[in-house]
Amino acid sequence: MSGSSESPLLLVGWDFRQTPVELRERLAFSPEKVREALAALRQEGLLAEGVIISTCNRSEVYGLSGPGLDGRDPLEAVTEFIAHFHGIPKPEVDASGYKHFGADAVRHLLRVAAGLESLALGEDQILGQVREAFRIASAAGSTKSVLHRLFQKAVETGKRVRSETGLSSRPISIPGVAIELAQKIYEDLSPRHFLILGAGETSGIFFDLLLARGAKNIEVVNRTLEKAEELCKRGGKAVPWDQLESRLARADIVVSATSSDTPVITREAAKVALHQRRGQPLFFLDLGIPRNVDPKVGDLDNAFLYAVDDLQEIAERNRQERQKEVGPALEILEEELEEFLAWFGALAVVPTITSLRQRFESVREAEFDREIEKMVHLSERDQEKIRRIASSMVRSLLKTPTEALKDEPDASRRLDRAEAARHLFGLDRPPKD
Amino acid sequence: MKLTALGLYGAAEAFSIGHLRTGREGYGRTATFLLLLGFLVHFLALEVGGRSAGTVPYQNLPGSLSLFAWMLAAAYGILFLRHREGSTGPFLIPLVILFMAGSLIVHSSQAPHAPPDPMRSGSLFAMHVTLAILGYAGLTLSFVLAQMYLLQTRQLHKHKLGLLFSRLPALDVLSRMHRTSVAMGVLALAVASCLGMFWAKRNWGTYWDPKVAFTFLLILVYVFTLIAPRLGWGGKKIAWTSIAGFVLLMFSYSIVNLFITVGHVFR
């Protein structure tokens, strides 16, 4: 199968590369809208099966063309439907985005699941979003054998790429790098004591990240206590600024993001804290500009200091490392693609009918040859007559199933029937003697 | 059979390195399986050797090196089961290979050894030597873990965060593994010393041997590394103390055995 328009598998999509954010926002689907759109697409006969992936970076409709197209180009019909569904003029929707058939559509989905199409190369979140999109479509009764197999394959590919290559192994965001570093000092962060200095936007981002990671002991120190209290409504404890030094000794990880012009943690303060910690390591994440932690703190034993520039440098290095993993990831992807296409190709009607005929003919020939040898009293003419009758019987027997396979307008049902025929007559197994 | 065990250990190391480089879980599982297989084959080799000698194969250098290699593999297995941390494998398995290969090289270069000394063939003596070797194995692993701790600390300090950094365990995990291996080594060595002293009293008429003094000094150093965190010592200082302890262990195993005591010489 190639990416030709003869294939019933299709994809219509818009992503961050080709579509401006304003249009992407208008093309986004909530889970309710996904269900509504899928139901309408099937009801109108445009798609026999369908899955919609909608994230902040992409909206994509995967489907198997339906019986109600009446000769229309399925990609155009689905695009028109989406434009109408969102109330956007079609030329506007047509101006950006992409449309693929067959192998190209499958390859694109596998790339998406592997994180190769993501804004942050190799990010993990997309795999969960692909899985969730499939779950919603399945629950809505919008997937059958083909998309079921396709999305299973996509999830498998995504997992394989992540486990067998380094595409997702190193973090490329500053919070991700910070967490990885902290976990190289304390493997389990949840019971650790965190001290956040400052209650601004950066502190808030880290506060939420730590809560999401299951951190149970977070203290926020801020010059304006009310701001710290505001942040701590989501969890954690607000601490007055004058208690900073006493809290330092209790902390395992310090995240500093204040707007102070001078260092708020001096070498002396850190030294005292480390002494009180009796040899326990202390990790400082200095996200302030200018720096909040005296750089000399990093020279102390059991103190590990990373500033925002360090984190940025690591993130960039990791990004370059990920780029090197694209090649091995693509090799896995092509392997999986080939496997899916082999399965899907075997489902196609023509190969199924051919296999079915060959199987029946081989049975007829085997039976005929065996029996005719025993009928020595028959003349050659009679033997030929019997051969013709047997062939005619095979043709008659195959007529109805062949028509049922060829004439079914619903592609999904057609493929289901082909799969059933292959299974019932064991067409994927070698014939028994 | 020993050669097969060595081959399996070598293959386990290769897969371990593969796991370290690529992070593929399959490589890690294969390494564990091969190591276990090597451990079992090695045990069979020791069993056969022990049966023909009529005692635990420790009375000559190849035998004791082979037993030491097996005990290292056993100690690593205990650490792995306790902490479920396989990323230390590429650093610890080479020790097993080194001593196993040493045993084979020494074995091939040595003339057939003399029949075992009947006085040193009893079960008490066998327990003493076996536990002492397990103790040395545990402490050898702690030496490697201490170096890994220092390496990881250095990488974190210097912001050198390459592949090795990402694959090595966290500092607190390395600390815990170090504690386990030291505790295992100290416990085995303490029991071995008591059994040895008991045996010496019965056979030599005295508890005293210069080796005893060095062993107790060794035990003291390592026990200190276990209680040092309570005294406010950090991981780095403990790691350096552990390395110093290992230097003492090597001194005890070589110089003391060869020149200071007469009762601990391998022939």
Summarize the structure in words.
The complex is a heterodimer of chains A (433) and B (267). Chain A is 55% helix and 13% strand. Chain A has 17 helices and ten strands. In chain A, the strands form two sheets. Chain A has a six-stranded parallel sheet with strand order 7-6-5-8-9-10. Chain A has a four-stranded antiparallel sheet with strand order 2-3-1-4, with helices on both faces. In chain A, α5 (102-114) crosses α14 (326-347) and α6 (125-139) runs antiparallel to α7. Chain B is mainly α and 267 residues long. Helix content of chain B is 80%, strand content 0%. Chain B has nine helices and no strands. Chain B has helices at residues 2-22, 25-53, 61-83, 89-109, 123-158, 163-167, 171-204, 210-227, 235-260. In chain B, α2 (25-53) packs antiparallel against α3 and α3 (61-83) crosses α5 (123-158). The A-B interface holds A 163-164, 166, 169-170, 180-181, 183-187, 275, 278-281, 298, 301-302, 304, 306, 310, 314, 317 and B 22-25, 152, 156-157, 159, 161, 165-166, 168-173, 228-238.
What tags apply to this protein structure?
heterodimer; A: 433 residues; alpha/beta; 6-stranded parallel β-sheet; 4-stranded antiparallel β-sheet; 17 helices; disordered N terminus; B: 267 residues; mainly alpha; 9 helices; globular
Task: Compose a concise summary of this entry.
The complex is a heterodimer of chains A (433) and B (267). With 433 residues, chain A is an alpha/beta fold.
Note the topology:
The complex is a heterodimer of chains A (433) and B (267).
Chain A: E1 9-15, H1 21-27, H2 31-43, E2 47-54, E3 58-65, H3 74-86, H4 90-95, E4 98-101, H5 102-114, H6 125-139, H7 145-164, H8 174-183, E5 193-197, H9 201-212, E6 217-222, H10 225-231, E7 237-240, H11 244-248, E8 253-256, H12 267-276, E9 282-286, E10 303-307, H13 308-324, H14 326-347, H15 349-372, H16 380-407, H17 411-424
Helix pairs in contact in A: 5-7, 5-14, 6-7, 7-14, 15-16, 15-17, 16-17
Chain B: H1 2-22, H2 25-53, H3 61-83, H4 89-109, H5 123-158, H6 163-167, H7 171-204, H8 210-227, H9 235-260
Helix pairs in contact in B: 1-2, 1-4, 2-3, 3-4, 3-5, 3-7, 5-7, 5-9, 7-8, 8-9
